[in-house]
Amino acid sequence: MPTRLLALLLGAILLSACSKTPVRLQTPNGELLGYVDEQVEHYLGVPYARPPVGDLRWRPPQPVEAWDGTLGAQENPDICVQFSVITGSLTGNEDCLYLNVWTPAEKPAKPMPVMFWIHGGGFILGQGSYTEADGQRLAVREDVVVVNINYRLGIFGFLAHEALTAEDPNHPTSGNYGIQDQTAALRWVRDNISAFGGDPNNVTIFGQSAGGISVCAQLASPQASGLFQRAIIQSGPCVGPMSSLAAISKLGAQAEASLDCDSAADTLACMRDKSAEEVGNTLPPDPTLGFGEGYTFWWPLHDDVVLPLQLMDAFE
Description:
Layout: H1 3-18, E1 21-27, E2 30-37, E3 40-47, E4 70-72, E5 82-83, E6 90-91, E7 98-104, E8 112-118, H2 136-142, E9 145-149, H3 154-158, H4 162-167, H5 177-192, E10 198-207, H6 210-220, E11 230-233, E12 243-244, H7 245-258, H8 267-273, H9 276-280, E13 301-302, H10 311-314
Parallel strand pairs: 2-4, 8-9, 8-10, 10-11, 12-13
Antiparallel strand pairs: 1-2, 2-3, 3-7, 5-6, 7-9
């Protein structure tokens, strides 16, 4: 590479790095350290729920705890555990319930509308930090606050099991953890977005592919009632049968046996004690047991709590 061209490239990189001005923001949970770039404040990797690890694996998301000091929010968070489409191997981190926020540095007089993006990927892969989902341009062009999220995927986000269903009498269901993550992030928006200049009463959710189906699920879920005002389904229809709790519970029994937990005194303790790698490699990323009860893979499922109606019935 010619010396002059190399110097220009290095100069551009240094200029880009220098243009990112640190910015601090106080939220109800604690102070964030983000940065300003091209007239937009970036807050990346903001926790919206407690890490779903250990005893919190396969449980509904729990509210994030407040932190002391200043939390760095200048780097994209780890992606949720999934199979890489490039290597075919497991990648990501169970500690992945984070979101990114972009808000104009120059705030208008009134609170800004909020755009809440849900990524696609068939509920087995994807992340809120996709380059094409970067909210910077949308924020500065439209004077909106943009939020992108991660949510649990695959076996971590949609496993159902009879023991999980019976574990909490006040929440008699299992599976749909990824959908509940999305709802938890919407609650975070309701409680926190004012600090970013956003209007919690003017929230639009939108998503593509599995993200579009997720929008359908949020529209249909009683748990998400009142958390948003508008919805855009970019693809992924609100039609077609969802899996049943009974059908996905068959996968749970298969996972239990594959993890050598079927003879354990405490099945759930055994399954939660396994490493993320062991759990992630237990079943293929898109297992099927047939279509007798609808689609029986890692997908939102029809239960009596999170999604009490089939999506197509919920909109009649």
